[in-house]
Amino acid sequence: MQNRNTLWIDGVGGYGVYDQSEVIFGGRGSAPEAIEITSDIPKQAFSIRYVGEDYLIQPFERSKVEVNNNRLVEACVLLNGDEIRIANSVTLAFAKPSPLSDTAVLTITSRHRWHEPIDGVVLFRRICVLGPNSMAHVTCRKWNSNLTLYRQENAWRYRVQSNGGSQLGSSNSPSLPMATNERIQGEDFSITIT
Predict the structure, then answer these.
(1) What is the pTM of this model?
(2) Which one of 52, 99, 105, 117 has the largest count of C-beta atoms within 10 Å of its C-beta?
């Protein structure tokens, strides 16, 4: 199973989904293993590493990285709602909205963009919740229900949890397989993972 996929959510956007313990972020011309931001920040600006239940951000040498306006000189733990700023230029929002899941999401809040045509980066840990709920990792405001993505035996699966308005079932709806490149549609949603 690859450690990276792209999740396409109709009417919402695209998200890079990374299932690995460490990811590296950098600017234009980054190494192939890095997640590139179209900016003039260093090619290897910082890494985020998953340790225990925490995400640690580590700046690379000669990279000016701040978390909540505090300059980093060593690794620190990221918390839900933290703002990351690189070289007084690129700003990112870190979200870990659900206490029931260690999955986190990074979105760019400055004028910059990801090199790939995505809206955010999902640091995947066991499950990812999509939907209108405030604890969803990716907010889908027009949906009536939350949809939970997870992996089982190296295959993607999903479950729809009703909030009362979806004909797809209740919170005990069945777990269903989701093949790569297969479009999954419901009454108010459509997603594909590639």
Answers:
(1) 0.88
(2) 105
